[in-house]
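Onboarding guide, step 5: your first structure request.
Type a short instruction followed by the sequence, for example:

Predict the 3D structure of this protein.
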Amino acid sequence: MKKFAALLLALLMIGTLATAQSFDFTGTWYLVSISAEGVTLNPADMGMEMSMTLNADGTGAVSTTGEEDKVASWALDGETLTVTADEEPLAFTVSEEGQLVAEAEGAVMTFGREPAAPGFVAAAEIPAEDIAAFDGTWTITTVNAYGMVVPFAAMAQSGLENATVVIENGAVTSFDATEPAVGTLVDGKLVIASELGEEFAQTVSLLEDGTIALNYMGILFYCEMAEVVE
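The system replies with structure tokens like these:
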């Protein structure tokens, strides 16, 4: 029985090795996600592109938005693919989905055969007929910071953790404020003026899909309804 188990284990190891060796690593691979501290980011939403080109002769190149292309090399050792650029090796394994996965500085990077597609597209704005249209308890889900779209959870690193926005009859409580800021309906939007000037004003817009967008200093906070205020 022990001999049979050992033989079975050997066959499984040979099969795994054969699969790794038959896998075609050559061609271009695109970064499709970055995960760190429980948050997954889509490079396409962040205006970022990164790709690796692996040639059959073991040479290659790494391209990243805003940087010069880097000459690279790659080698396969068992099930591990190692890509080296600027003398910095990065070890990859193949996932069940046929993607390349590597961990670097606490972040997990996943590469696929196709470039990442934007994962978030905001709905179009619609004018509110009355100020009560904004009433409710809302949860911030997504943030667009000057073109970089990230889940709200990613803002925790900058100290912004409270995702709740409460609006009732034009009074808006958000970002751990102790007192609500009162706004008025202007051209179908809820506008909260600031004593510091127009650039510090907040604007809340209704969106076609039933969500809202809170614009503060050019940063858009997209919110979903959590509870209706009665």
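Each response can be followed by summary notes, for example: The chain is about 10% helix and 50% strand.
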